[in-house]
Write a structure and sequence with these properties.
The chain is α/β, with parallel strands linked by helices and about 525 residues long. It has 2 domains: about 15-85 and about 260-513, 3-Layer(aba) Sandwich (Rossmann fold), CATH 3.40.50.12780; about 115-255, 3-Layer(aba) Sandwich (Rossmann fold), CATH 3.40.50. The chain has helices at about 1-15, 25-30, 35-40, 50, 85, 90-95, 115-135, 150-160, 175-185, 205-215, 245-250, 285-300, 320-330, 350-355, 365-375, 380, 400-410, 490-495; strands at about 65, 75, 80, 100-105, 115, 140-145, 165-170, 190-195, 195-200, 200-205, 220-225, 240-245, 260, 265-270, 280-285, 310, 335-340, 360-365, 390-395, 415-420, 455, 470-475. A 7-stranded mixed sheet has the order 5-4-17-16-18-19-20, sandwiched between helices. Helix 7 crosses helix 11 (about 245-250), helix 9 (about 175-185) crosses helix 10 and helix 15 (about 365-375) crosses helix 17. It is globular, with a radius of gyration of 22 Å.
Length: about 525
């Protein structure tokens, strides 16, 4: 069966069309010179200084890569910085009055909110001060169980400001999933909300959060509750529960000095399902992860400060962390958040939003694109989508038919499409076309990014010929990589490295992800 699938895949690879990026896009692209691949290969790992240079450092790093203890690689060692300051403070002089977050809520446009960089900076500081007053300190893990409301990125950036790693749990997960993750992280603090809207209807959320808290095996010191539903849902508040609005109001005008964090200090945990049923706590660090998301946002998504950038993912997943919050905000652009679904109140909702906000990029999932196809091109045809400059896909492979529909009906054959492969564990994009450099093949993600040594190998670990099917491996470390699984180094080695690596070797070249 596997051999038949491999033959079918190889036949498809041989029959692919190619599309060139529009000349107008190439002329203005952040990266448009094909020599970037050769340069990064010749100058690896020092090539990643380009990513680090996109950030402001409190202390300059001494070494780009410390590979003395594989697979526990360290990036930008000796350097110190703060992720919140890189996403907010450094943009205030030039971008303070410009929109940082455009939030589109349900059930009506009256729910929409715009946060300028100045306003976002102020509320992040106020909530950071509130967390401080609660007793949250450096390296305390703060869990967030929240839907797509603006208080979620505010809480993330407030935690980053004070050096407290955050652990975001997708709002659609069960109460048991919340308890499991808080237990695994030994997290004593929770930020949640009363509820949210879905297709115009208010959905309770705090009751589910309270049920999850009942399953936490240690004492939870404080719970912060965002009031999203107002009078639509009257929720009980225990003594340890605090209303978010009251906390922020009590800290009005407060300013919190960003904590200087070592490049290898943990920025956040993200729990991903494991084959044994026990979630894996993927650990991402401050310097390497932030440099990676900034660089890929600039090089692949072609994000510029003046853009209005729209990623339709949920922040509860890694795509939202990397490409709604940290990547776009580190570059000083306007990032969009949408609370609702693409088909409410009508099936043209996304196109209506793109037209109204004049979005420059759209980064969405093939699942959504297939739904758009099924609904028909009449919906996007009703709207002016000419502001779009780039389209992207994430989360799964996209078939050539869906790719071409996306290219024609959403991009009007004027927008390059980036088909991106990556994982929670990689922190950001790994395999995709640089839109200003290479041709696009519908149904194919493209080559590894510059500096990424990805190889397709057979079951013995030997590289296969071009056009042949196999297993994707990464042969060298990269700045955005996970550092380990939280409190479980042994599982980290077993699950990610053991299959193709010589785990008894101290030579970095013998370790393959």
């Amino acid at each position: 069966m596997q051999e038949e699938q491999d033959v079918e895949l190889e036949a498809r690879l041989e029959d692919q069309e190619r599309f060139e990026p529009p000349e107008s896009f190439v002329e203005g692209a952040n990266v448009s010179d094909d020599s970037v691949y050769e340069t990064f290969e010749e100058e690896w790992p020092e090539c990643w200084e380009q990513a680090a240079d996109l950030l402001d450092w409190n202390e300059e790093y001494e070494t780009v890569l410390d590979d003395s203890n594989p697979p526990f690689y360290e990036w930008f060692t000796g350097g110190e910085l703060n992720a919140s300051a890189n996403c907010l403070d450094r943009h205030l002089d030039e971008r303070g009055d410009e929109a940082a977050i455009e939030w589109i809520g349900e059930p009506t446009d009256e729910e929409n909110r715009t946060y300028t960089y100045e306003e976002l900076h102020r509320e992040v500081n106020e909530f950071a001060a509130a967390l401080h007053e609660m007793g949250v300190g450096e390296d305390d893990v703060v869990t967030m169980y929240m839907p797509m409301v603006p208080e979620l990125p505010i809480a993330m950036l407030a935690c980053a400001r004070i050096g407290a790693p955050h652990s975001v749990v997708f709002a659609g997960f069960s109460a048991d999933a919340l308890a499991t993750r808080m237990n695994a992280a030994d997290s004593e603090y929770l930020v949640t909300c009363d509820g949210y809207y879905r297709r115009g209807d208010p959905l309770e959320h705090k009751a589910k959060a309270d049920e999850g808290l009942d399953g936490v095996e240690h004492e939870v010191s404080d719970v912060v509750v965002v009031d999203r539903l107002g009078d639509a849902y009257d929720h009980p508040m225990a003594e340890s529960h605090h209303a978010y609005a009251d906390l922020v109001e009590a800290q009005s005008g407060a300013e919190v000095e960003p904590v200087s964090r070592d490049a290898e200090d943990m920025l956040f945990l993200m729990y991903t399902s494991g084959t044994t049923g026990q979630p894996k706590g993927v650990k991402h660090t401050t310097g390497g992860y932030l440099a990676w998301t900034a660089w890929t946002s600039q090089a692949v998504l072609d994000v510029k400060p003046e853009d209005t950038y729209f990623c339709s993912a949920d922040i509860g997943w890694i795509t939202g962390h990397s490409y709604i919050v940290y990547g776009p905000l580190s570059l000083g652009t306007t990032t969009m958040m949408y609370e609702g679904t693409p088909d409410y109140p009508e099936k043209d909702r996304l196109w209506e939003i793109i037209e109204e906000y004049e979005a420059d990029q759209l980064y969405t999932a093939p699942t959504a694109i297939r739904a758009f196809m099924k609904w028909g091109s009449d919906y996007p045809d009703q709207h002016d989508l000419s502001s779009l400059r780039l389209l992207g896909t994430v989360g799964e492979p996209i078939n050539p038919r869906a790719w071409k529909w996306y290219y024609k009906h959403i991009g009007d054959e004027n927008c390059p499409i980036i088909d991106t492969w990556w994982q929670t564990e990689t922190g950001g994009m790994m395999v995709t076309t640089l839109p200003g450099v290479r041709d696009m093949k519908p149904g194919s993600a493209g080559p590894p990014l510059p500096g990424v040594d990805a190889q397709v190998v057979d079951t013995h670990g030997d590289e296969v010929e071009p056009g042949k099917a196999g297993h994707l491996t990464v042969q060298k470390p990269w700045p955005g990589m996970l550092r380990t699984l939280y409190n479980n180094d042994e599982r980290y080695v077993d699950e990610y490295w053991a299959e193709y690596s010589d785990t008894d070797s101290d030579d970095p070249d013998d370790w393959v992800y």
